[in-house]
Description:
Blueprint: E1 2-3, H1 7-15, H2 30-43, E2 96-97, E3 100-105, H3 113-126, H4 166-180, H5 182-190, E4 195-200, H6 203-216, H7 221-224, E5 227-232, H8 250-254, H9 263-286, H10 294-311, H11 322-340, H12 347-350, H13 352-369, E6 372-377, H14 389-395, H15 397-403
Parallel strand pairs: 1-2, 3-6, 4-5, 4-6
Amino acid sequence: MAWRITLPSILIALSALLFCLNPAPIEGSAAAILDTLRLGSLSQKPRDPLNGSQHDSAAPPEAEWDVMRHQGGNSPWFRNEHGGDEGGIDPPPGCRVDQVHMISRHAECYPTAVAGGQMLALHNHLQTPNLTLHATLAFAPTTPFFLPDPPTPHFNTLVPTGPHAGTLQALATGTQLRTRYAHLLARALAANETTTFWASDSACNIATAENFAAGFFGREWARTGAARLQVIPETAGRGQCTLTPSRSCRKYVEDSDGEGSGLGARKLAEWRALYLPPIIARLAAQNPGVTFTETEIYSMQELCGFETIVKGGSQWCDVFTREEWAAFEHGRDLLHYYRSGAGNRYSGVLGTGMLGAMARLLGEGGERGGGLFFSLYVTLPLPTETHTHAHTCTETNNEMRRRT
């Protein structure tokens, strides 16, 4: 008996229709939401993601609270601790794994050009001659920018060194999966098969894929022909590619009904307008004569996670209270939930290509359909890819446009 799908694969397939890596936003007034977030963030206990009113009001000891758990995806990688695999992912007795599907975003990267540019603008503001800041911001005017100089060429590239290097994380992931699925790799090599794996067209993503391949297939994977990396341009002309599906849905891209690609950003902007002004006022009171914009405050919060990835820690993390970090985390939830998750009406249809491709391959089984399918991507919503990629981009394009 062949066990053709692992628990991660099941979760990935479900995510094509309901992207719930981020919990559903909490409804209510700003004050009520902040109160719920404050209590929830202090307890750090798993909550029903669809019911923000559930929380434990008992705050844990100081040592149990970790600001990196409230960065909304901007922190170094850490393992899920909210359950889902209590029984382990080993196949049941008498079964074996004969096909594996992996979907992954990139490893730790420097910020994108947009976010990084805003961080750099903030840094330049802080270098104003004779600027003196106080309290938790006293460090800022004399702190160098955390990216190598000049910083611009490094935006959206894989972090190569440091305590949370993206190169190391991608290599380690490949090695761990090689250990777990050595029998599938051995089968492919014995058959003299070249495994094709995919990455979307970004420097960070391509470098992640290459380092992952070094861990899984070996350092000489390209020379030996063990694997071949296929980079997929993120262009609308490719049609409904399951790796980057959002470009193929005209209504989602144009956002003419207000329910498409810009919905998440609008929800985040509304939330920022509620939670950031009190922070601006607090920092202005501590630093008379100095006023920061909402964009600058938000960049300060983003610096906490990104600088920690590069340097192992960040003084920006100490600028904000736990309640303010809970508000930042909620904003990130709003962004992703409404941009490409269950809060966006187009997410389900955008995921049908991925779900259909995976279902077909699982139906064929490992002996016929192949055993290893690895995809690394940048674009949301959550996609995957199959060995029929060139056909998938063409054949399903018209159907996708009809449905969206």
